[in-house]
Amino acid sequence: MSDTACATAPFDHTKADIILRSSDNVHFRVFKLFLSLASPFFETLFEIPQPAEANEEQEVEDGLAVVPVTEDSKTLDALLRFCYPCTLADDPNLEVLKDAVDVLEAARKYSLDAIEKKARQAISHPKILEAEPLRCFAIAHRGRLREETLLAAKYTLTQPLIPSWFQEIAMITAADFLALLTYHKQCGDAVYALRTDLAWITSHYGSNEACSWLHGRYRYNNYNGYPQYNDCGCPRAPTSKYMLFGIQSPQWWGDFMEETFTQLRDKPCAATVRAAAEKTVQTVKTQNCASCSPSITEGMRDFSDLFVRKIEVVVSQIELQLTF
Q1: How many CB atoms lie within 10 A of CB 91?
Q2: Most CB atoms within 10 A, among 119, 250, 277, 299?
Q3: Helices (H), the chain
Q4: Whole-prediction pTM
């Protein structure tokens, strides 16, 4: 047998009453009571009398039975920290997807329901989902985690319709993957359809005065003291495609809408809108228009929020056709 190492505190206690040996030969000196309270699996295991001396079937060290497990030391350390009281061990950090998956599998194996719940929460944490939504989807669906699968599917909308290869793709069937791609395309098509009817914009603002920033117009009082509007110097949009309240908008508004909707077919998500809005803000500011430049940041922020809310409503109505 390879040389063994001793785990770090609190799994090196001299008064421990059993030793768990990880697959990479690290000895964890632990207390049966903590593990028995956390898991019926361990409770049953520890009810079996443990010999005080080594024999052909049982390894013993310092008078304690050594129980080999298939988990590596990193996974076992995380699992045991969840089992121990918080006064003795802090809960482990599961911000890396592989760590969360390894703990989830081990928790299921040892009937650690509370720890399984924590691992599921880790898999559905926004930080992990934002970084690796496709991997989360495959892992969650393979693990028959319905809510986590549906949430991960929504996060995959931040990725291109045709994704790059990822290792966990082998964990799902071709039918599962096709269902995900179909869901993605349906979401993109539904969001793209918003461009054909802009009532969701006009109903939000109510009047052209409430969104004068996107018309490129400035207000002044004529010689009689009545308010009037003039167009700023920004080029006007060549078509009435994205015209609101019957007023021709600047070219930058038409460009923003056209480019954003095109990108949304591929990535129908909030990030697409916000990135396009920020690009437009910077473009307009470089034009130094006395009417548009001062108001573009606040105006686009408000419109982006509206746009994102509308996308979320549309996407929520698309169902992922997947069997669990």
Answers
A1: 12
A2: 119
A3: 32-38, 40-47, 73-83, 97-109, 113-123, 126-131, 133-142, 146-155, 174-192, 199-205, 251-266, 270-286, 296-316
A4: 0.78
